Amino acid sequence: MPATTIHFVRHGKVYNPDHLLYERLPDFHLSEQGARMAAATARFMALNPATQAVVAVYASPLERAQETAQIIADGMNQMRKSQGRKPLELMSDERLIEAGNEFRGQRKDRWPLMALQPANWSLMSNLMEPSWGESYRAIAERMRDFAYEQVERYPGQQIIAVSHESPIWAFRRLLETGKPEHNMLLRHTALASVTSITFDVESKNVLGITYANPASGVQ
């Protein structure tokens, strides 16, 4: 029974001195710590027999995801070069992008105050959907479309997909519970973490989900 594994990686820490809700805004790059996080995840994946057989690397088009993915691909390629294998190339996919959010550009510490303003009450009508941007179901379904397409494209193989906290967790929730809606404060998707999902190629059923946090000690 062939199976395809997709390693969903969250990007590393972002340089954000103004503490903005950057969401899909451009020009938010990895911080120095974020680059080190990505490098730690690259080492983990290159040295781990369970992950070093990757054949493709995809990423959200946002800079922080692209930079994380490139660092990982470069780390994997060092190993592949020593083995005489073809280097991995980075590919982009819009379905891996961060969720849309109507509060983007606001300071994180002012977000609660913005939510209390009468003009924004309609955006706060449903905390579980959520009503302030792209719904968790829409996020999870585009991630599912991406995953199923790759399962068919890479039967019996492994790929990396660098995305964002909300898309990775919403998709995992959909697979595990059938309901992507969740409390955003209870996500289990650390920076530069790896959520690996294995699918049966024929049925698309989930055969297993594992989680690793190789950058947890990076300062």
From TrEMBL:
Gene3D superfamilies: Phosphoglycerate mutase-like. Pfam families: His_Phos_1. InterPro entries: His_Pase_superF_clade-1, His_PPase_superfam, PGM_Phosphatase. SMART domains: PGAM. This is Phosphoglycerate mutase.
